[in-house]
Amino acid sequence: MAHAPGEDGVRAEPNLTAMLDLVMQLLMYFILCANFSAQEYNEDVKLPEAQSARPASKGEGDVLWLNVLVNGNVKPLGKDEMDAGELRDWLQKRYLDALSHSKDGKNHTAIILRAHRDAHYEAVYKVMQICKEEKFTEFKLHAKKTAGD
Length: 149
Hints:
alpha/beta; single chain; Nucleotidyltransferase, domain 5; 3 helices
């Protein structure tokens, strides 16, 4: 944007390079953040309905998202589908990682369990038992709010 010449004939041309660079960096940051938050929801898992379902709070802290599929296998957020043995090994590594980052030497990681509505209760219970055996004690079960409420 050019301004009319002043009394001495000098024109002012603003340099927008720095501002455009900042805008592009902010845009890329928000695109990346939006992409990661969308991964929390696995389209393979159709949640059961519950009257008392509430929206997930953003202040969850350290969490592990586990999706229990119809076949009983588990698909952690951002990982491939795994059976019970692979889940146990993966949880052992997550437990050790949580302890290494803990200030008080305790595991404060919550397991957010999203079970498919057609998954057998036995599969969900088995996943919870494996988590308890690997020293994860805080669980949150996700469901979809009933449409009539």
